[in-house]
Design a protein that fits this description.
cytochrome c-type biogenesis; 2 domains; chloroplast; mainly alpha; single chain; membrane; 303 residues
Length: 303
């Protein structure tokens, strides 16, 4: 009972804080000089990280297993992952902190908001793990997959932002002169915009590379776990198939980065497509509730 009350309090405190944080972030995007507001938002994100960490630990203690057995728990872990990535961006970005951290803060409020919604009310109560999930591979496989999803989603959103900035500039100049200028000239017209696009491209590549690594580890560990549980490393059920599609899309993205002619906009388009594929893999497939991961449906678990 005490743990349930503590979990309820931590869930709503973290959502309240992150809601205030995202509001402050959007304000600082409009008014760059409000340094005090920005510092307050970062303190809020630190507080959110501690609340979500406490929420995971609390659920771990009273459930008796690592809190990644259903969609509710995996979304909490996803929020925690977004918060971690946000703090990494905070300590590494020298410029444009407001624009870049707003992406990770928005991701955190989206997932945390879904966690506190009534849609997952039936999952709030922790239950005994089904036999297939009673394995030491649960923590390894699911944590790697979810953290990989978080990093890939953040990196993809940076690519989406890059495309919005780039094509908005192209359309603006095209409408004025009716002449499609080359990309380099478009960027040189506004040095700040050029710097921002380069920064988005740089960090999108770095974060997606990290997410791709975690996704690969997650898929490999899942294959080993599947062999132990089902007697086969790969079964091509919907969850595994979409995980492979996700891996392939971002493998293509990383390949485009090796070709200078495909960097920038072209690779960003691939990453943007990957953003939709991740949500299909992580959330969409679970709505079907079919295949060997049927215990990972909307009403039970997600990985």
């Amino acid at each position: 009972m005490i743990f349930s009350i503590l979990e309820h309090i931590l869930t709503h405190i973290s959502f309240s804080i992150v809601s205030i944080v995202i509001t402050i972030h959007f304000l600082t995007l409009l008014v760059d000089e409000v340094v005090g507001l920005y510092n307050s938002s970062e303190r809020g994100m630190i507080a959110t990280l501690f609340c979500i960490t406490g929420l995971l630990v609390t659920r771990w203690i009273y459930s008796g297993h690592f809190p990644l057995s259903n969609l509710y728990e995996s979304l909490i872990f996803l929020s925690w992952s977004f918060s971690i990535i946000h703090m990494i961006s905070y300590f590494h970005f020298k410029k444009h902190k407001n624009a870049l951290s707003a992406i990770t803060a928005s991701s955190a409020i989206f997932t945390q908001g879904f966690v506190t919604s009534g849609l997952l009310a039936k999952m709030h109560q922790s239950e005994l793990l089904v036999p297939a999930l009673q394995s030491q591979w649960l923590m390894m496989h699911v944590s790697m997959m979810v953290f990989g999803y978080a990093a890939l989603l953040c990196g993809s959103l940076l690519s989406v932002a890059l495309l919005v900035i780039t094509f908005r500039k192209v359309i603006k100049i095209f409408s004025k002169s009716n002449i499609l200028l080359n990309t380099y000239f478009l960027y040189s017209r506004n040095y700040y915009r050029y710097q921002l696009v380069q920064l988005l491209d740089y960090w999108s590549y770095r974060i997606i590379s990290l997410g791709f690594l975690f996704l690969t580890i997650g898929i490999l560990s899942g294959a080993v776990w599947a062999n132990e549980a089902w007697g086969s490393y790969w079964n091509w059920d919907p969850k595994e198939t979409w995980a492979f599609i996700t891996w392939t899309i971002f493998a293509i993205f990383l390949h485009t980065r090796t070709n200078q002619n495909l960097e920038g906009v072209n690779s960003a388009i691939v990453a943007s497509a990957g953003f939709l594929i991740i949500w299909i893999c992580y959330f969409g497939v679970n709505l079907l509730g079919i295949g060997l991961h049927s215990y990972g449906s909307f009403t039970l678990t997600s990985n």
